Inverse folding.
């Protein structure tokens, strides 16, 4: 993980002991250093002990934040005493960073409730939140109302908050490539480019023929093709895949990489079913798997909001995501189901990864035209699942997210596959069907539903259902 940068505001209020502000400043600098978080905060000589109380001090702190606005991804507000609620609100208003804000308040000690030592931060935090609400500034809360910066639970809160900041920053500027037309049989992956654009999400389109045309012009002698062939072989063993198919996969890989670099794309959604097989003679699954593994998520069937969901989950967890079908019941267990796709999941999910074909597709296009699909079973691991969708009739973006487990239950089939165990799975399926969500869902090997709920619901302003 790269270092996260947070702006830090230390609240102060005149009639409370100043020494508390001084101690808080040194304490938080130590805590942030341990967590690999870079603080941007006033020097202890810039204002009274580096705290923020008056409007003049708020101006100073806001000016400092503005100088670093490119790197500040969130703001931490510390309340070692009651704090001046207007000082905090004015700083955020003047800095106008439009980033997530976390409010921390120190606990009082029962043995130190005298005038010289009491903090009253419990009460001050409520006042600060009330002011931010009045100013229309979005904010997050720690898991307990008051907690010490030295508390390990607060450290987890802080790391979760930096993950929220990552998701928000990423989602407001994400660029997605939509390659090819939505397959005719997949009305389910329709979406609104305009609603996405209004939320800062840009979609760049390309005709599949342009991509395949460029790939067909490449030869086995091309240095780029040779290089990509080497990297594919390093990623997954060739197995029974013929050399001609490997060459086709590598050529397509070169063109996709160039397209992503040319348009500065963060993610892609690619037409696969069934044009690629019929017109080019291989599957693009391996390339998609490599991209997803390298944190450039790729979804099939031009599922743009599917790849957007992959990107959001990857930002939250720092690990790759996979696009899957809610595919089958698991025997008669109401809380288990089978997750499946032909074979484009990131390698992180496939310890037994093999280069193979796509048997279902093969029944219509010929199995020999489906080389490049991956085969592999995902073992037991933590699960966060979810889906972002545009709801065009309502003009909104809606989301569902939840957590469960991937299990080691027996599963004798082909393709990329996993067994998921999800509490009240039947209720979740009812929700998905009643609210018109797609058959595609995204899985991530993490427990990040709360982070995604905070980032997408509170800060992006989307309609979020947490199962």
């Amino acid at each position: 993980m790269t270092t996260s940068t947070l702006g830090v505001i230390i609240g102060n209020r005149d009639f409370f002991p100043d020494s508390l502000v001084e101690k808080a400043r040194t304490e938080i600098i130590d805590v942030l250093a341990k967590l690999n978080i870079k603080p941007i905060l006033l020097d202890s000589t810039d204002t009274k002990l580096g705290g923020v109380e008056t409007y003049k001090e708020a101006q100073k702190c806001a000016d400092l934040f503005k100088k670093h606005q490119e790197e500040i991804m969130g703001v931490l507000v510390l309340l070692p005493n009651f704090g001046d609620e207007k000082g905090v609100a004015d700083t955020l208003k003047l800095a106008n960073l439009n980033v997530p804000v976390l409010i921390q308040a120190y606990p009082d000690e029962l043995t130190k409730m005298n005038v010289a030592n009491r903090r009253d931060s419990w009460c001050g935090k409520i006042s600060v939140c009330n002011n931010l609400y009045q100013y229309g500034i979005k904010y997050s809360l720690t898991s307990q109302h008051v907690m010490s910066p030295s508390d390990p639970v607060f450290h987890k809160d802080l790391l979760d908050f930096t993950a929220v900041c990552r998701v928000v920053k990423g989602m407001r500027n994400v660029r997605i490539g939509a390659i090819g037309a939505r397959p005719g049989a997949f009305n389910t992956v329709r979406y609104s480019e305009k609603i996405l654009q209004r939320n800062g999400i840009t979609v760049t389109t390309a005709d599949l023929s342009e991509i395949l045309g460029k790939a067909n012009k490449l030869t086995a002698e091309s240095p780029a093709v040779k290089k990509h062939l080497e990297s594919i072989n390093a990623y997954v063993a060739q197995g029974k895949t013929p050399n001609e198919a490997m060459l086709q996969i590598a050529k397509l890989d070169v063109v996709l990489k160039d397209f992503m670099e040319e348009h500065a794309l963060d993610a892609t959604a690619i037409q696969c079913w069934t044009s690629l097989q019929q017109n080019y003679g291989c599957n693009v699954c391996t390339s998609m798997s490599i991209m997803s593994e390298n944190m450039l998520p790729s979804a099939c069937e031009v599922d743009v909001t599917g790849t957007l969901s992959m990107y959001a989950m990857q930002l939250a967890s720092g690990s790759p995501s996979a696009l899957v079908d809610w595919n089958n019941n698991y025997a008669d267990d109401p809380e288990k189901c089978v997750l499946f796709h032909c074979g484009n999941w990131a390698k992180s999910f496939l310890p037994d990864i093999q280069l193979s074909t796509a048997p279902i597709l093969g029944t219509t296009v010929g199995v020999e035209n489906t080389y490049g699909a991956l085969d592999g079973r995902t073992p037991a691991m933590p699960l966060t699942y979810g889906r972002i969708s545009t709801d065009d009739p309502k003009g909104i973006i809606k989301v569902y997210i939840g957590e469960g487990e991937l299990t080691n239950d027996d599963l004798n089939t082909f393709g990329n596959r996993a067994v998921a165990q999800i509490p009240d799975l039947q209720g979740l399926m009812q929700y998905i069907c009643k609210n018109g969500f797609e058959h595609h869902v995204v899985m991530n090997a993490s427990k990040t539903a709360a982070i995604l709920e905070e980032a997408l619901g509170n800060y992006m302003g989307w309609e979020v259902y947490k199962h």
